[in-house]
Amino acid sequence: MNHDLEKKYHISYCGSYCHICDWHTGRIRRAFQLAYDMIDSLGLKKQLGENVDVDNFKAGLKNLAQSSICPGCKAEASIHAPGEDRCKIRQCCYSKGYVLCNECADFPCETLKSNPGVIRFHCIENLQEIKDRGHKAWIDRQWKAYVTEPID
Fold it and tell me: Global pTM?
């Protein structure tokens, strides 16, 4: 594994890791496809109940199953005009030329500390560990944790 390329392309600015993200890997798409397939193959229409519009429900599952796989945070960085990026963290970090937010003198800033996704996925802690131990050790730990968890 090329750790430097992983850092450059697959660790998001805020400290998430794309290679273990369920949207990026397609795990979420596979789950919705499986649910869609199970409705017919297992005859689950009755179990959904009379109040459920099964065709509409299946259409929603199909849409989610066919949704795009996330290309990753950094793949989207250069496609947005300044001020139009939906992610303020990415917009800030990219505009300053940083690879990760922990390179900034203001780390951890209020934008990071108040972002629900950053809080939920412990991104500040990730970035601090990368800063303290280096990105190679952090990536290796992520992969070790990921491969020991059940994937599907």
Answer: 0.70
